[in-house]
Amino acid sequence: MRAMVLDRPKQPLQLRDVPKPKPGRGQLRVRVNTCAVCRTDLHVVDGELPDLKLPLILGHQVVGRVEQIGKDAPSNFAIGDRVGIPWLGWTDGDCAYCRSGRENLCDNALFTGYTIDGGYADFTVADARYCFHLPDRYDDVQVAPLLCAGLIGYRSYRKTGGAQRLGIYGFGNAAHLIAQIALYEGRELFVFTRPGDNATQENARQLGAVWAGGSDEMPPKRLDAAIIFASVGPLVPAALRGLAKGGAVVCGGIHMTDIPSFPYADLWEERVITSVANLTRRDGDDFFAIVPRVPVRTHTETFLLEEANTALDRFRAGKLNGAPVLVVNRAAPSEVAAMDLNSRESSGEPR
Ligand SMILES: [Zn+2]
Ligand SMILES: [Zn+2]
């Protein structure tokens, strides 16, 4: 099968012919239709994350069809079912974190496209217990970015509790998805972009933000919470300064540059800084239940599997017009027929 392989960080992925993986106990073999590219993939390729598997097949927003079912796999998927494979690939179910409902922090967790192979390939295998059924109203391209940008973004959003005035720093893929849910739930949205990025600020206002400005500006009102999706450490004290008493800054990324020091007075009055790590299966179930109700719209830009390096380069350079999605295999004829029945409205919007 074809795979885009990372041999070493800081090198381009190599298109290679590799053996098709065999499903082990409890695993599904999935024919990959699409795989969205995540900022985390950039951090992996750029050597900013430790302990990765090498050589590695990246990709943790995988959409495909079940082709083969391994021994003793749970019966939640049948041959031909559509399946979504997320970042959380396996947990031991047995450590203190797993036993207290925090499998996202599992001591022995394995992560798709990082410590186990992912979806930048024609086929992949995944533990069936960590795979999701996906909402029917989205096609394979539209739904792919929901699997991480959406899902881990949603966990960040949930960490803001009932915050009425919600700030978002960095208005990329995750922010765009989560903003729609926040507005649906009646939150007031304050969006911070790179100073001078008037186009993104205008986008945010059109989406429904009550205010949009540069990250060097203070919000017009103090915020109950702020989520930081940009991997820029100095945004943490900046966001903290704009918080109301008891407010929280939630760092939604896996990697961030160093955070500069700041006066304790900015943290005083029970302000909180927290990070978000990974996801639980419960997050996924909750997220995929709310997404079609909003309905969350995704904006995507597609690439072929062999164009993965181009997608990564353009992501790094900020030159994308939507969430990047690799189209690995065209949907099989029977799947296309099913899609036509749902009559697609226009590209980039859920049906
Ligand atoms: Zn565990
Ligand atoms: Zn991701």
Please give the structural blueprint.
Elements: E1 2-6, E2 14-17, E3 27-36, H1 39-45, E4 56-57, E5 62-69, E6 82-85, E7 88-90, H2 96-99, E8 110-111, E9 123-127, H3 140-143, H4 149-158, E10 165-169, H5 173-184, E11 188-193, H6 198-207, E12 211-214, E13 223-228, H7 235-241, E14 243-251, E15 272-275, H8 281-290, E16 300-304, H9 308-316, E17 323-327, H10 333-341
Parallel strand pairs: 10-11, 10-13, 11-12, 13-14, 14-15, 16-17
Antiparallel strand pairs: 1-2, 1-4, 3-5, 3-9, 3-17, 5-6, 7-8
Helix pairs in contact: 4-5, 4-8
**Mean of pLDDT:** 93
Indicate the percent of residues in helices.
Answer: 10-25%
Distance between the termini: 32 Å
**Main sheet overview:** 6 strands, mixed
Principal-axes geometry comes out as globular
Radius of gyration: 20 Å
